[in-house]
Every structure is written in structure tokens, then in C-alpha cells.
Amino acid sequence: MTTPKSQFQTLSSPSLSSSSSSLSSSRFTPPKPLKFPSKPFKTLCSQTSNPRPPVKPITFISILRAIPDWADGIKERRMKQSKPLYKHDDWVRHRSSLRHIRHLLSSFSSRVILSLVPPVIAFTSVAAVVASYNTAVLWHLLPEIFPVLRASSLPYQLTAPALALLLVFRTEASYSRFEEGRKAWSKVISGTNDFARQVIVSVEKDSSLKTALLQYIMAFPVALKCHLIYESDIGRDLHGLLDDEDLAIVVSSNHRPHCIIQFISQSMRLLDLEEPKRTLLESKVSCFHEGIGVCEQIMGIPIPLSYTRLTSRFLVLWHLTLPIILWDDCNWIVVPATFVSAASLFCIEEVGVLIEEPFQMLALDELCNRVCNHVQEAMKSEKKIKETLLLKKDANSSNNSSLNGHHPIQPNTSSSRK
């Protein structure tokens, strides 16, 4: 049973869009024009036109979220930028005596400082409101029922060490995670270089399979990097390293680094190697598994959330009540004092949050590119180095044979006879 064509297919059929000459030559009788009701025709036109994105209504919550969303957008864009590896010139600039002025002038472009705009503005505004309220009460602009918001500073003196310890432990725990991630990637990079060196030295036959195995080894750090960093384009990063068929298999897999390891294992099985060499090469794969395990643990297990929430709540309550505590001593100076305190303490907490996920802070792109360059350079120079060493070996063997052809020099024994 045939189904009737839709209205859109009838309107856009090639028989109606052809010229009149082609219709007359093929003796095609055009169908009678169809009459559509007005409502379906309007619906059809609305579907073919480019729909405009829906405009979100402006609400009080959207206004309050405007600045935090702007700050988060800047921070996430800066996090996605590739980090460079330091060279000698960078270290000279890093320890320059002008670094303090340079850091101060670049404050407004820092993602850490820009991410602090919402909380600092909020707590500074609270301080301004408290100062305005107390001033209105002292100037008798409000009824006598309203009291002046003031309190003793003794509770803050007692709880200040607790807040300092919270921030120190929070930052120290985040830095330990950063150091652990750095060490894990150092092992992956060194293992990749060692694995490639062993393949270049051990495999003498099957040049095409050897080249493919080296490509898989170079592709592993890139696949691990894309596995750890959000919104990474693994197809673009591996385009020049793998063939199209291999790349399609890797992209379609659920766990890309494990798929690369499978390629490596299958390639080593097909190589014609002696058992000791095969065992040595297979032992190098354990470094890749270890790197995957450590990196996935760092990504999947953050610092205990109760500790992070406690630090955040402590900071918020501290700065909400700070203008009340400082009013008797500072009066309107509570506004800049709250600004400085919020900018300083929240900056320490923000640095701890940023380095808690270390892979966004490491120069993984540069590390992967460096590994690929080293392996490719070793592949290119392998034949030249081998030929040079063989020439030296032949030269040494010829020199030894020429020395063996002469009679050894007899020592002079005339003095001994005397």
C-alpha cells in the first residue's frame, strides 16, 4: 500500500521546478493545483524559515546570576587555553625583580581575580548596607526601635586561627593532588619515550608494523590527555598520528586510552620477536595502565566535599558578620576592610579549587608534542646512527687486524744482562 506524499514533498518535487520545454518534450501533463487550507500553509512556511532562538525572560534570578555567569565563562575559557612549558627566557622573566609590578598591572586579566568578582562585590555591598544602616540609626533617621549593629571582636579573634588552618589545609591538599598528577604524567612521558626506544632497538624486521607500533605509542599520551580534559577534540589531535581506519576505531570506542593499548598489544603479538624481547616490551605497557589508573582516580575522587563545603561556609559567614564586628573600631572603613579581606581569603580558596583538578593546569599539549617530536626524530636518525656506528666498528676491526699482523716489540734486555 502506497502512502500519499506530504504537502512539502509535493511542493518541492522536481516535476514542478523543471522548465516548460522539458515538460512538453516528455509529454508530461502537470497535475491540477492543490488547494491547501490556510493553517497548514502557515505551518509549512514557519517550518521552512529559520527559527529564532527563544528569548529568555529577564527575571530577578537571572539578573543576580549575570555577574557570576560572566565570571565563570571567563574562567572556563581561560582554563581551556593551552599552557606552555617554561624555557630559559621564561625563567629569567619569572624571577625578574619587576615581577611584582607586572603581576599588579595584570590583575584585571587574571582568571583567579575575575572569578572573585561575584563574592567580593556581594560582601562589599553587605558591608556598605550595614554601614549605611548604622549611620542612619546614629543620626536618628530611623526609629529608636532599630539598634546599632555592633558586636565584640573576641569571637573573631578566637575563630581566626581555625579559618587560617582550614585555608592552609585546603590549599595543601589541592597542591598534593597537583603534584600527584604531575608525577603521574612524568611517568607516562618517560615510559612512552622508553617504550619507543625499546621498539626502535629491538624490532629489526617488519618495518611497516614497527612504524605502526611507534605511531600507537606516540598516540597514547594524546589519547590520555583527551580522556582527562573536557571537550577535547581527539579526532583533530590524532589526525596526523594514526591512519583513518585506526582513528575511526579509536574515536568510536568508549575508553580511548585502553583502545590504544589494545592496538599496541596486538601489534606486538604480530611482530616476529624473541621471547625475552617480547617480554621486555610487554612490561612497558604496565606503565600506561598505571598512568591511566592514577589519573582517573584524581579525576573521579575530589577532596572530601564536606571539607570543601565547610571552608566555603566558614568564609561566607565570616565576611557576612565582619562589618558588624569592625563597626566600633572602623566605622565606614568597614567597607574597604571587608573588600580587602574578601579579596584575600577568597583568592586563597579559589587557588585551591583551581589546582584541585591538575590536568587543566599542566602543559599537556606541549608534553605530547614533545614526545611525538622526540620519537619521530629517533625514527629518522636511527638508520644514520646505525650506519655511523657500523663504519666505526669496521674501522676499529681493521685497525686491530693491522696491529695483529706486526711482531710484538721485544724489550731491551742488555741492561739486565749487565
UniProtKB/TrEMBL annotation:
<dbReference type="GO" id="GO:0042548">
    <property type="term" value="P:regulation of photosynthesis, light reaction"/>
</dbReference>
<dbReference type="InterPro" id="IPR044669">
    <property type="entry name" value="YneE/VCCN1/2-like"/>
</dbReference>
<keyword id="KW-0406">Ion transport</keyword>
<feature type="region of interest" description="Disordered">
    <location>
        <begin position="396"/>
        <end position="418"/>
    </location>
</feature>
<protein>
    <submittedName>
        <fullName>Uncharacterized protein</fullName>
    </submittedName>
</protein>
<keyword id="KW-0812">Transmembrane</keyword>
<dbReference type="GO" id="GO:0042651">
    <property type="term" value="C:thylakoid membrane"/>
</dbReference>
<feature type="compositionally biased region" description="Low complexity">
    <location>
        <begin position="11"/>
        <end position="40"/>
    </location>
</feature>
<dbReference type="Pfam" id="PF25539">
    <property type="entry name" value="Bestrophin_2"/>
</dbReference>
<feature type="region of interest" description="Disordered">
    <location>
        <begin position="1"/>
        <end position="40"/>
    </location>
</feature>
<keyword id="KW-0813">Transport</keyword>
<dbReference type="InterPro" id="IPR024701">
    <property type="entry name" value="VCCN1/2"/>
</dbReference>
<keyword id="KW-1133">Transmembrane helix</keyword>
<keyword id="KW-0472">Membrane</keyword>
<dbReference type="GO" id="GO:0005247">
    <property type="term" value="F:voltage-gated chloride channel activity"/>
</dbReference>
<dbReference type="GO" id="GO:0019684">
    <property type="term" value="P:photosynthesis, light reaction"/>
</dbReference>
<feature type="compositionally biased region" description="Polar residues">
    <location>
        <begin position="1"/>
        <end position="10"/>
    </location>
</feature>
